[in-house]
């Protein structure tokens, strides 16, 4: 009798141990499946190669986009890549491209902000550079602008042959065309600040004489047309 009871008790304990081990194993596997993906978002100053966004530009980017975290920029979305693209076609003084697309990490007021460049051998109609302006949505209403443009003259750029200046324009604005949830004047200044930050970084990368005439601080934009 004693032998049978001991055998039954031993069998019950063994069964309980096996069930417990299986339960722990299943729980462990489930935990691995439920692991959250690593956070790859970055702060504004690390966007677009980490050299183009000043402290002031980072602050206004956070304001107009409504977020403090952003998707990491692509390896070619840098001022260095843009400078090389400008000098790639040495037979012409004209060209254009996208320097960097800025996306929020998660939901935000804007889905995308683009920084685009264009280059021309002809000075702006006003003849005055550097020149910053914003393009209004509706001249009769106080709405945030569509984009901000900053043009500067690059003399003696490392990427450019000859002595003729290149007139480089940086354009900043949302795409698709969205309206930020911020004061119109704040948005105007924000776009101009971001355009100035990228322009100054690009002028330095190109080796433009006197940094293309750009000051260390952004100038207030004037209203443009179109």
Structure characterization notes:
37% of the residues are buried. Helices cover 34% and strands 18% of the residues. Helix 2 crosses helix 4 and helix 3 crosses helix 4. It folds into 2 domains: 35 residues; 180 residues. It is built from 4 helices and 6 strands; from the N terminus they run H-H-H-E-E-E-E-E-H-E. A 6-stranded mixed β-sheet has the order 1-2-5-4-3-6. It has 226 residues and is α+β, with helices and mostly antiparallel strands. It comes from Streptomyces solincola. This is Lipoprotein. Keywords: Signal.
* Poorly predicted spans: 1-30
Helix content: 25-40%
**β-sheet strand percentage:** 15-25%
What is the total number of structural domains? 2
Please give the number of β-strands. 6
Mean pLDDT over all positions:
81
The arrangement of helices and strands along the chain is HHHEEEEEHE
Task: Write down the overall geometry.
Answer: globular
Structural class: alpha+beta
- State the separation between the terminal residues, measured CA to CA: 101 Å
